Amino acid sequence: MGMIERADINSVLQQMRELKTQAQQGPSPDMNRPQGIRAVTESQEGESFADMFKGAIDGINNSQAQAKSLATAYEKGVEGVDLHQVMISMEKASVSFQALTQVRNRMVSAYEDVMKMPI
């Protein structure tokens, strides 16, 4: 148990040293822009909203398929597949799907609002 705690402490100390070094170097020019703006400017110019949305759906589908395959492998007793890997993968897939559901609900709500507008 002492060895695990020592490794955790060393990991935290290493992260603190890295953060200290970054703080001493000063902010990068890209640091002042909000994260969302960085993502938009770095995305491809020709990519449409439908393509981005399809990519997000495909990514969520892949995470669910990976979680299912890990669960099946764990049930079969495949070497190297741990319970915590399965649980984390399943939880990531679940959270991703819930987020997608919320996005869909917001899009439907926005569509309904637009349809209710007088012409």
UniProtKB/TrEMBL annotation:
TM regions (residue ranges): none
Locations listed in the record: Bacterial flagellum basal body
This protein's GO CC annotations: bacterial-type flagellum basal body
Pfam families: FliE
GO process terms (BP): bacterial-type flagellum-dependent cell motility
Homology family: Belongs to the FliE family.
Protein name, as recorded: Flagellar hook-basal body complex protein FliE
